[in-house]
Amino acid sequence: QVQLVESGGGLVQVGDSLRLSCAASGSTFSTYNMAWFRQAPGKERDFVAAIKWSGGSTYYADSVKGRFTISRDNAKNTVYLQMNSLRLEDTAVYYCAAGPFAKASFSRNYYLQSTYDSWGQGTQVTVSS
């Protein structure tokens, strides 16, 4: 069980970069798979990126691949989402999520919300022209 708090969101212009952070508190952060999801107004929550507990495997939605990078620093109990070349359609509330490594086959379920037990409150990212 971990508690997650997102930060780093804000108002930026098209083409800008932004780095989101998700700070975790609780036990054994290094044993949790981590992910980022986002939800735009009037839309469902969608998968963005995920990283395995070991840090050796990362996964991305097609819409962000090549532009976004997920990483983690276990020493700081933090997961990051580096967002480059931001577009208008990236505007959304971004949520981080954590799931125990032993729960399921991560390689097959990383994109599912049910894979994750803990969720942050979200941070707003607004991209304008």
Structural notes for this entry:
Helices cover 3% and strands 50% of the residues. The chain contains one helix and eleven strands, in the order E-E-E-E-E-E-E-E-E-H-E-E. The longest helix is centred in the C-terminal third of the chain and has 4 residues, at 106-109. The protein starts with a strand and ends with a strand. The radius of gyration is 14 Å and the shape is globular. By secondary structure, the chain is mainly beta. Strands 2, 4, 5, 6, 9, 10 and 11 form a seven-stranded mixed β-sheet that branches. Strands 1-3-8-7 form a four-stranded antiparallel β-sheet, with no helix packed on it. The chain has one helix at 106-109, and strands spanning 2-7, 10-13, 18-26, 32-39, 46-51, 58-60, 68-73, 78-83, 92-100, 118-119, 123-128. A hairpin with a 6-residue loop joins strand 5 (46-51) and strand 6 (58-60).
Mean pLDDT: 94
User: Which value, in Å, is the CA radius of gyration?
Assistant: 14 Å
- Sketch the major β-sheet: 7 strands, mixed
Q: Roughly how much helix do the residues carry, as a percent range?
A: under 10%
Distance between the termini: 40 Å
Shape: globular
